[in-house]
Amino acid sequence: xxxxxxxLLRFKxxxxxxxxxxxxxxxxxxDLARSVINSYKQLPFVVYQFQLKFRDxxxxxxxxxxxxxxxxxDAYSFHHNQDNLDSFYTQAYQAYERIFKRVGIKPVIxxxxxxxxxxxxxxxxxxxxxxxxxCLIIGEESGYAAxxxxxxxxxxxxPHEMKPLEKxxxxxxxxxxxxxxxxxxxxxxxxxxxxxxxxxxxxxxxLRGDLNASDTKIKNYLKVPGLSPANEEQIRSAxxxxxxxxxxxxEQTKGCQVLVDISIQSGSNFVGGANEEGFHYRNVNFGRDxxxxxxxxxxxxxxGHLCSTGKGRLKAIRGIEIGNIFKLGTKFSESMxxxxxxxxxxxxxxxxxxxxxxxxxLMASVCEKYHDDFGPVWPKSIAPFHIHLVSxxxxxxxxxxxxxxxxxxxxxxHEVLFDDRDERPGVKFKDxxxxxxxxxxxISKKTLENQQxxxxxxxxxxxxxxxxxxxxxxVTDFLKQD
Length: 482
Hints:
Layout: E1 9-12, E2 18-21, H1 26-34, E3 45-54, E4 69-79, H2 82-102, E5 108-111, E6 121-128, E7 134-139, E8 144-147, E9 153-154, E10 166-169, H3 176-183, E11 191-197, E12 202-208, H4 215-222, E13 228-229, H5 232-237, E14 256-261, H6 262-266, E15 270-276, E16 279-284, E17 294-296, E18 306-307, E19 315-329, H7 331-335, E20 339-341, E21 347-349, E22 351-358, H8 359-369, E23 371-372, E24 375-376, E25 387-391, H9 396-411, E26 416-419, H10 425-435, E27 439-443, H11 445-449, E28 452-457, E29 464-467, H12 471-480
Parallel strand pairs: 12-14, 14-17, 25-26, 25-27
Antiparallel strand pairs: 1-2, 3-4, 4-22, 5-6, 6-19, 7-8, 7-19, 9-18, 10-16, 11-12, 11-13, 15-16, 19-22, 20-21, 23-24, 27-28, 28-29
């Protein structure tokens, strides 16, 4: 409740008790498990559910992609050691690949931020689409893939012999672009600072001028739930001048932390602020001119950066998250005392994993991938029905022929929607397109006179006429196709 931000739906009941609507159920499942687990002999085991969940989204958007109320398939596993979790995690990973293949999606699988779930490792299964809400960083040559929030990259730093510090006038030149143009240097040769209010305290990020700070990496490093931009008053109170800020000659206290990106540690002779209006320094070097013990990867990976493996350039694509898996470790079991006795009689916290698929957003993602101008084109494996059987007109012989064919197709195990409504053919066909059923069969007075039936796969431009005696065989062959 305290770790999660505003997206957790909080309210009070009629007598003032604080209540929440769950957006995830790790605590509830851990509470259930601790009432059952006693011995290592009961492990491993997994429980799963299909459950309604809630997020207090500020702006529901993207159809079923980002909504306040949604259905999830969740699974939670409990293990007696890390190797056992690792083995099950691999099985879950492979099972998810098969699930998404079955619904017609080949996901892009990326390492992701563990976020509020904690744990050591997480993967997201993403549908690549230009309308995706997430940015994914892919190394096509190396096989590297990660969510941009945590993606790594090579800074390609080329350190040189340190030159003497030199103060230069840069009147009214505050941005990296302005300073670079004025001094006729590349943004890669500059150094900038990004400031956050960590409530309380000022967080100062020092990174190369051509890079952007990653909020997620910074939050994970500091282990804080959120960050907000610092104001000019906070920056000046720490001894720095906005627009000309620099980590030189400032006092790093509990109220002011300086985090240095590895681009600065591995580079040299940067142009950085002088903490004085209208002035910068040339040849600023980490270790000589300023120091910090807080070194790390605090920059966003972007398209064109060198892959962290050194193999090729990174590519950025958009994606929709359709599933995720986490190695939770003992975050929940330790705090909630979900323990077991091992073979030596010692108590240990159960080691956990969790595995989720958003049912609504998966449906929306499949629709995003498989559709045309008339509606969705559902893969056969998840279509609401395999066959849309349409009677054209209300003539008794037509209805009888359709009913007979309907019974025969059902007896073969096919899922059939028999549309015998007293509606015009265009209405029925239009509805069928919106339903996205893979195959349409239609019988009219005219086709029946020739003992024929209209046979139209959903994605085909036009129907073809086939003999009624061929229908069952053609249907079977069509549904066997990938």
